[in-house]
Amino acid sequence: MNDPTPGTTLSADTSAAAEDVQLRLWREMSDAEKARLVTALSQSADALARAGILHHYPAASARECFLRLAIRRLGIELASRAYPEIATLSDVS
Q1: What is the pLDDT of residues 35-85, one digit of tens each?
Q2: Parent domain of 71
Q3: Are residues 86 and 92 in contact, defined by beta-carbon separation less than 8 angstroms?
């Protein structure tokens, strides 16, 4: 990770002092700790995406949620090639 330009921060809503602490803590983390953090963040992103899908499609089965998540992750073209059953979803073209 490159350090930001002096006088700037990576996030507009974070003070320079807070960011300094955050960067120091990231640098001090072991590879295993970083991997656990990335895994947890990925799982949280998946949970939010699934919640959004269920919000729009409350009657969706687990498989339909999986297919709709694949579309969000991969795009319709690649997801359809990987999972041809996507064509059975009524509102996907």
Answers
A1: 999 999 999 999 999 999 999 999 999 999 999 999 999 999 999 999 999
A2: 16-88
A3: yes
Cβ atoms of residues 23 and 14 within 8 Å:
no
Distance from chain centroid for Cα 23: 21
Locate tokens 């895994």: which residue? 39
Rounded to two decimals, what is the model's pTM?
0.68
Q: Are 63 and 69 in contact (CB under 8 A)?
A: no
Is the residue at 8 inside a domain? Answer: no
Question: Nearest 5 degrees, angle CA 39-CA 92-CA 49?
Answer: 25
Locate 70 and state its tokens. 């694949």
- Looking at residue 6, what DSSP letter applies? T
The residue type at 26: W
Note whether 83 and 70 are within 8 A (CB). Answer: yes
The answer to whether the CB of 69 falls within 8 A of the CB of 50 is yes
> Is residue 3 included in any domain, yes or no?
no
